[in-house]
């Protein structure tokens, strides 16, 4: 038995791939739910109602999708240029703390229309800076950025933990390690009143369209794709590899930092070390499920959000740990990898 | 007394739609040297890969010393006494010579490697066949010729009775090649049987006892080397009269590009050493040489991918600094890279994207790529240069090598460049595509383009170039005219003999 | 100054160095073995997490400590099989596949832990490995305290480093593995099956990673806490580069790192609140990055690392 590369990938198959991957991962998750002794179909039903069953549930799911879209985009733009940014988690935290600090100490008095864009920029800048370090190490010393971005996640989280323990600590928080809150003007307006759904979702979706436009239409998009697919061919054609990678890193890090900004300004209004339940890592799954397509990222982020919110609700009524969501999402990444493989190859005997 | 050591019988192999080997039969005697002659794509390498167990034949069988060889098992082939010397060496640069040779020769479950014994055996074989090596040397530190020696030793260490060499001289200098063939003849006298794959008629005639000609996956002829001629073999190999376009006389114009004492250092190594050359409108300057002697660096230098460390360059009469790829392209310098698939195209991108990538600024308005203009540009190339097998929107990976090369040629020539740098432009193409590429290059020359042709193929250079320089160890010979030299002379130049000859000439006068 | 000297002179510091080094040694050796055969295994962090959980669970459920360690190893091998299937048979991106394995293995261990162990106020405990008393040596003044109060798995780890160095550089199997990591085509041409070598190395290496994780729950601590691996796997990956893919240097590197870690822990107690503790906790990660920057260019990377091998494709 051997694998043979397909000459042409059937378009229908390419579109079906993520659906098949998700279906298989859900089937496997079903097995794990059965292992917990819970009725599988009921559990899936409860996941769905938990995610969409009420207005509250639906708004919660959509609110969850916002940071996932942004971290998913961060991974997608980087991976497309073969820049392995696994550091979105750290970039998200750095973006968040930068926003809290800037809002409290720099732009505090400014009206929302001015302050909010400024803070978005601040968060994005912080994320960029954090990704430029491993990129510099790669370009200068040929250090694999996968490991450095992973290691920097820990550094960033500890750095944030230090700040909210010291200079940025909220004096009114009864000694809890949490940052000073963002100014009230900086809190993102709600889409639906008295819910957690804020305009960050609209921002994220708009950004997805912008990123899609950049990749599909601009010279930079073409060049970064070329650099990712075949660096030496791109260099021969005059694509400035270093500069392209720096721009890609700024875009990717900026998106992850923006995710942190949106989360602080839209949901928590202050930073703790529990701000993100692994949005940065889930972003990798989201990007892969989307086939690195920016618009696909929106859908993949929605799936991931459904799993997380739905599983939380389900585990409250059934004896199935809510970690089932993390397991399913991780499985969907593995299934997606295998599914992509079989769109590119076929089995020959 | 003859003894058949290898018998290949009615072996066929199909890849997708192409029949790479069609009922091939071949037998080899003890102490005999067979040359397997054929063009690229004739099926030589496929046949040898089946012999060595890399591929499984679809039908037919192979027996060694009268015993059937189980298909698809390299280990069985080694045990049966077949040793393979690949064109791309199967060696690990980070390991030592001894480690490279002894890998896989001991049982994997032995608790201890007997390096002392292996070393003694290696030295014994090395002495017997005159193949000198240092067992402890790191392989990556050796020259290409020495690495090939290790590859041959590896086969002999495995008790090979039948040695198969895939285009063994492709990477060697003439001197190294002569030495290697002398060694092969000595081995045959000592009882080894040898098959070597080649498309070079000279070495086939000089070395082989018997010549088997392959064409289109079939054995088309078998001749004793004594009873045939180069002309006959050439006809058999190609199967039709070769009609490569002829270069008509031309009067070159002004000098467009000139290099004086240019030195290029890359990664700490001097790749070009004080080279001088100039290029005139409407002429082809051929640079010949065995690969690895600096021609890739020369192409990179002129193509805007490398910065010189010393020396002067002028372009259209004006001194120039270091140029980027973009500046090179904008100055009207076209470039055909040596490695098509690696440097020339981005396989997963569309044909139109590949067509415009190096001239992206021309197709960009306010940062946005003008897709329509790009598609039109690609369509013009496809029509004008007879690129078959794809539309502007299809991925370029799906094109055949020849059509890919036509596209690359087209994107460079369609705007009538002032200078064209063509590195190995016909490498790996079939005869028809070669003719098309050569015709295009001569057409550009007629239109006044100055062409820098870098090639290993002497016939190609002889046919196209107005002046020829050899590159050896990063140094360029003075130019010679193809009308005044023959292949033997060029061979000497490629071996770096021009300096000595000049001294000799001086002495004679 | 004298405070620093006191730290260096305390036997406890050196005892801690060996203890902290042990999981790193296991993990680094595991990653090293995979990479020597040409496979980067970023599943390491998740595999360690799972090993820590399942090893602990086995002991909590009544198995003895060595059985627990063995169970952890086996579980690591299963994840190794998964990673090998994805990267060797299918030839998928080793980066993404490894991350997938990490995400899956860690979330799966949390899931199983929640499922199998009742939620209590404090996490349930087991009785971990006890220091091995070596007659004579352990009774030496100072030295006995500093070096010979380790649990048995620590000694196993150190012996393992030596065994692996010998196996890689002195046995036919080791040469076959290294050849596979340098040039699988050449290995195949010499009758070695690169697929088998890669599968074997990844499976066995992953078993070692899981053992490293299990050391944390079975010897260093006595209970399982999610996220307790704390990037030790990633540090192991960095240490492999730092060690230039040599087991002896990996051992030395792990000890060096453990030294800094143990040292900063004690420095914290001396300096106290003057410097935020987070700065100390950052040091191993920053050191790892520095080590990578220092060594990445100098190291002789296995030439076929991260290159999928398919027969007949070049």
List the helices and strands and how they pair.
The complex is a heterotrimer of chains A (349), B (509) and C (314).
Chain A lengths: L1 E4 L5 H25 L4 H13 L2 H26 L7 H18 L6 H30 L3 H21 L34 H18 L1 H11 L1 H6 L4 H28 L10 H11 L4 H24 L6 H21 E4 L1
Antiparallel strand pairs in A: 1-2
Helix pairs in contact in A: 1-2, 1-13, 2-3, 2-12, 3-7, 3-10, 3-11, 3-12, 4-5, 4-6, 4-10, 4-11, 5-6, 5-10, 7-8, 7-12, 8-10, 11-12, 11-13, 12-13
Chain B lengths: L3 E12 L2 E12 L3 E5 L6 H8 L7 E6 L2 E2 L5 H6 L2 E4 L11 H6 L12 H15 L14 H14 L4 E5 L7 H16 L3 E6 L2 H7 L2 E6 L2 E7 L5 H9 L16 E12 L2 E12 L3 E5 L6 H8 L7 E6 L2 E2 L5 H6 L2 E4 L3 H5 L6 H6 L7 E2 L2 E2 L1 H14 L16 H13 L5 E5 L7 H16 L3 E6 L2 H7 L2 E6 L2 E2 L10 H8 L3 H11 L1
Parallel strand pairs in B: 3-8, 3-9, 6-7, 7-8, 13-20, 13-21, 16-19, 19-20
Antiparallel strand pairs in B: 1-2, 1-4, 4-5, 9-10, 11-12, 11-14, 14-15, 17-18, 21-22
Helix pairs in contact in B: 13-14, 14-15
Chain C lengths: L1 H8 L1 H26 L7 H17 L4 H25 L4 H23 L26 H5 L4 H19 L1 H11 L1 H6 L4 H27 L11 H11 L4 H25 L5 H19 L19
Largest interface: A-C, 47 and 44 residues
Number of domains of chain B: 2
- Quick one: how many beta strands of chain A? 2
The chain-level mean pLDDT of chain B equals 87
By CATH reckoning, the class of chain A would read Mainly Alpha
Helix-residue proportion of chain A: over 70%
Could you name the ranges of chain B where pLDDT drops below 50 across 5 or more consecutive residues?
A: 503-509
Indicate the proportion of strand residues of chain B: 25-35%
The chain-level structural class of chain B is alpha/beta
Number of helices of chain B: 18
The third-level CATH topology of the largest domain in chain B is Rossmann fold
Walk me through the structure.
The complex is a heterotrimer of chains A (349), B (509) and C (314). Chain A is mainly α. Chain A is built from 13 helices and two strands, in the order E-H-H-H-H-H-H-H-H-H-H-H-H-H-E. Chain A starts with a strand and ends with a strand. Chain B has two domains: 235 residues, 3-Layer(aba) Sandwich (Rossmann fold), CATH 3.40.50.300; 189 residues, P-loop containing nucleotide triphosphate hydrolases (Rossmann fold). Chain B has a six-stranded mixed sheet with strand order 6-7-8-3-9-10, sandwiched between helices. The C terminus of chain B is likely disordered. Chain C has 314 residues and is mostly helical. Chain C has one domain: ABC transporter involved in vitamin B12 uptake, BtuC (Orthogonal Bundle). Chain C has 13 helices and no strands. In chain C, helix 1 packs across helix 12, helix 3 crosses helix 11 and helix 11 packs across helix 12. Chain C is globular. The model of chain C has no long low-confidence stretch (mean pLDDT 92). The interface between B and C is medium-sized, with 34 and 25 residues.
């Amino acid at each position: 038995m051997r694998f043979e590369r397909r000459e042409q990938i059937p378009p229908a198959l390419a579109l079906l791939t993520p659906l098949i991957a998700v279906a298989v991962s859900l089937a496997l998750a079903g097995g794990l739910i059965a292992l917990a002794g819970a009725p599988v179909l009921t559990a899936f039903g409860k996941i769905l109602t938990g995610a969409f069953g009420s207005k509250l549930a639906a708004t919660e799911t959509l609110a969850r999708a916002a940071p996932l879209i942004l971290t998913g985009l961060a991974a997608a733009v980087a991976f497309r240029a073969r820049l392995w940014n696994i550091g979105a988690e750290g970039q998200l935290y750095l973006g968040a703390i930068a926003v809290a600090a800037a809002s409290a100490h720099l732009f505090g008095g400014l009206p929302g229309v001015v302050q909010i864009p400024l803070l978005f920029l601040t968060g994005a800048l912080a994320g960029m800076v954090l990704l430029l370090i491993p990129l510099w190490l790669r370009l200068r010393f040929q250090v694999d950025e996968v490991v450095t971005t992973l290691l920097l996640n820990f550094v960033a989280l500890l750095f944030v933990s230090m700040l909210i323990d010291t200079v940025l600590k909220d004096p009114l928080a009864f000694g809890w390690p949490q940052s000073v809150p963002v100014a009230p003007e900086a809190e993102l307006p709600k889409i639906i009143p008295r819910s957690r759904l804020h305009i960050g979702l609209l921002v994220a979706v708009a950004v997805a369209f912008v990123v899609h436009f950049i990749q599909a239409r601009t010279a930079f998009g073409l060049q970064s794709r070329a650099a990712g697919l075949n660096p030496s061919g791109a260099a021969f054609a005059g694509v400035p590899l270093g500069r392209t990678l720096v721009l890609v890193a700024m875009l990717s890090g900026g998106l992850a930092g923006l995710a942190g900004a949106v989360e602080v300004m839209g949901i928590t209004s202050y930073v703790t070390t529990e701000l993100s339940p692994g949005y940065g890592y889930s972003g990798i799954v989201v990007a892969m499920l989307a086939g690195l397509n920016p618009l696909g990222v929106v859908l993949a982020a929605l799936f991931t959000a459904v799993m997380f919110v739905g599983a939380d609700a389900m585990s409250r009524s059934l004896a199935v740990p809510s970690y089932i969501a993390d397991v399913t999402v991780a499985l969907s990444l593995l299934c997606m990898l295998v599914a992509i493989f079989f769109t590119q190859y076929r089995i020959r005997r | 007394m003859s003894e058949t050591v290898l018998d290949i019988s009615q072996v066929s192999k199909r890849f997708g739609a192409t029949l790479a080997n069609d009922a091939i039969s071949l037998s080899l005697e003890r102490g005999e040297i067979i040359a397997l002659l054929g063009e690229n794509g004739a099926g030589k390498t496929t046949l040898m890969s089946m012999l060595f167990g890399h591929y499984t034949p679809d039908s037919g069988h192979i027996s060694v010393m009268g015993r059937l060889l189980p298909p698809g098992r390299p280990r069985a082939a080694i045990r049966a006494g077949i040793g393979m010397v690949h064109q791309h060496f199967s060696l690990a640069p980070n390991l030592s010579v001894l480690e490279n040779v002894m890998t896989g020769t001991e049982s994997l479950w032995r608790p201890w490697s007997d390096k002392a014994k292996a070393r003694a055996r290696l030295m014994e074989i090395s002495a017997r066949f005159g193949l000198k090596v240092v067992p402890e040397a790191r392989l990556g530190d050796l020259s290409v010729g020495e690495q090939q020696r290790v590859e041959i030793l590896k086969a002999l260490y495995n008790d090979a009775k039948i040695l198969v060499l895939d285009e063994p001289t492709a990477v060697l200098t003439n001197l190294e090649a002569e030495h290697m063939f002398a060694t092969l003849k000595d081995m045959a006298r000592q009882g080894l049987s040898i098959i070597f794959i080649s498309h070079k008629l000279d070495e086939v005639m000089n070395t082989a006892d018997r010549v088997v000609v392959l064409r289109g996956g079939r054995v088309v002829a078998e001749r004793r080397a004594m009873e045939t001629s180069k002309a006959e073999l050439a006809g058999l190999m190609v199967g039709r009269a070769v009609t490569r376009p002829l270069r008509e006389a031309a009067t070159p114009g002004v000098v467009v590009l000139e290099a004086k004492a240019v030195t290029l250092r890359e990664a700490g190594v001097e790749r070009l050493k004080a080279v001088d050359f100039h290029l005139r409108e409407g002429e082809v300057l051929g640079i010949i040489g065995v690969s690895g002697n600096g021609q890739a660096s020369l192409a990179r230098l002129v193509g805007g991918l490398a910065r010189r460390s010393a020396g002067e360059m002028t372009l259209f009469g004006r001194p120039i600094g270091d140029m980027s790829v973009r500046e090179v392209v904008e100055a009207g310098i076209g470039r055909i890279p040596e490695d098509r698939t690696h440097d020339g195209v981005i396989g997963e991108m569309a044909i139109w994207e590949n067509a415009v990538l190096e001239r992206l600024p021309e197709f960009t308005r306010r940062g946005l790529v003008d897709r329509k203009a790009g598609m039109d540009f690609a369509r013009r190339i496809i029509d004008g240069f007879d690129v078959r097998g794809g539309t502007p929107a299809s991925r370029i990976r799906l094109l055949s090598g020849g059509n890919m090369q036509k596209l690359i040629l087209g994107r460079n020539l369609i705007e009538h460049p002032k200078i064209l740098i063509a590195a190995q432009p016909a490498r790996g193409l079939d005869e028809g595509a070669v003719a098309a590429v050569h015709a295009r290059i001569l057409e550009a020359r007629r239109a006044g383009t100055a062409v820098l042709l870098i090639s290993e193929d002497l016939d190609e250079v002889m046919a196209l170039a107005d002046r020829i320089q050899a590159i050896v160890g990063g140094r360029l010979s003075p130019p010679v005219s193809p009308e005044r030299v023959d292949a033997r002379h060029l061979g000497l130049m490629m071996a770096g003999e021009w300096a000595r000859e000049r001294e000799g000439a001086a002495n004679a006068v | 100054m004298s405070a620093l000297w006191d730290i260096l002179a305390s036997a406890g510091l050196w005892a801690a160095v060996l203890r902290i080094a042990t999981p790193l040694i296991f993990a680094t050796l595991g990653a090293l073995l995979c990479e020597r055969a040409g496979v980067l295994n970023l599943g390491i962090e998740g595999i360690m997490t799972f090993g820590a959980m399942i090893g602990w669970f086995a002991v909590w459920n009544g198995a003895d400590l060595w059985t627990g360690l063995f169970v952890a190893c086996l579980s690591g091998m299963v994840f190794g099989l998964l990673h090998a299937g994805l990267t060797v048979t299918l030839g998928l991106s080793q980066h993404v596949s490894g991350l997938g394995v990490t995400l899956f293995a860690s979330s799966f261990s949390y899931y199983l832990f929640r499922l199998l162990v009742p939620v209590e106020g404090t996490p349930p405990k087991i009785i971990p490995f006890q220091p091995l008393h070596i007659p004579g040596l352990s009774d030496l003044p100072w030295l006995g305290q500093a070096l010979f109060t380790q649990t048995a798995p620590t000694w196993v780890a150190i012996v393992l480093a030596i065994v692996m160095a010998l196996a890689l550089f002195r046995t036919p199997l080791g040469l076959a593995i290294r050849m596979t990591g340098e040039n699988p085509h050449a290995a195949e041409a010499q009758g070695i099956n690169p697929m088998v070598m890669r599968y074997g190395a990844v499976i066995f290496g992953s078993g070692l990673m899981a053992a490293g994780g299990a050391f944390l729950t079975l010897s260093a601590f006595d209970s399982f806490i999610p996220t307790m691996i704390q990037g030790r796997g990633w540090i192991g990956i960095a240490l492999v580069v730092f060690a230039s893919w040599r087991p002896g240097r990996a051992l030395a590197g792990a000890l060096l790192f453990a030294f800094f870690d143990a040292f900063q822990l004690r420095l914290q107690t001396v300096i106290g609140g003057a410097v935020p503790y987070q700065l100390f906790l950052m040091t191993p990660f920053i050191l790892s990055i520095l080590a990578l920057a220092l060594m990445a260019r100098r190291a002789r990377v296995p030439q076929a690392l991260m290159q999928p091998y398919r027969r007949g494709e070049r």
